[in-house]
Amino acid sequence: MDLSNNQLTTLPNEIEFLKRLQELYLRNNQLTALSKGIGYLKKLQKLDLSRNQLTTLPKEIETLKKLEELFLDDIPVLKSQEKKIQKLLPKAQIDFIEIKK
Fold first, then answer.
1. What's the rounded Cα separation, in Å, for the pair 85 and 101?
2. C-alpha span between 91 and 68 (Å, rounded)
3. Which of 5, 50, 84, 92 is deepest in the core (most CB within 10 A)?
4. What whole-number distance in Å separates Cα of residue 93 and Cα of residue 55?
5. What is the pLDDT of residues 9-52, one digit of tens each?
């Protein structure tokens, strides 16, 4: 599901009902937090949160055991939490590319 470039400020808790979702693209929105419902997406393999206003990820993200790729490009606050995030998701490839403006 691609919801990129939509100026979203929140992700509804109802996201938890998309249990078969494998890819979720939320790039370039205005998200400041993710709902705990993200933890119910057990089949999620790709998650792109790049270019949002996130300051932390919910603890529930560690339940995403099938997650292969997590994109956190251009989110400096999360880059500073890189080791913590990698511990939560040891099997995922995590990208923290900084985009020069």
1. 25
2. 7
3. 50
4. 20
5. 999 889 999 999 999 999 999 999 999 999 999 999 999 999 99
Cα 34 to Cα 61, 99, 101: the distances in Å are: 9, 22, 26
Encoded amino acid at 69, one letter: E
Q: Is 94 helix (H, G, I), strand (E, B) or coil?
A: strand
pLDDT digits (tens, 9 = 90+) for 41-86: 999 999 999 999 999 999 999 999 999 999 999 998 888 888 999 9
Q: Specify the residue for token string 């979702």.
A: 21
Site of tokens 């400096």: 76
pTM: 0.91
Q: Which helix (H) or strand (E) holds 88?
A: helix 82-88
Place of tokens 């995590």: 94
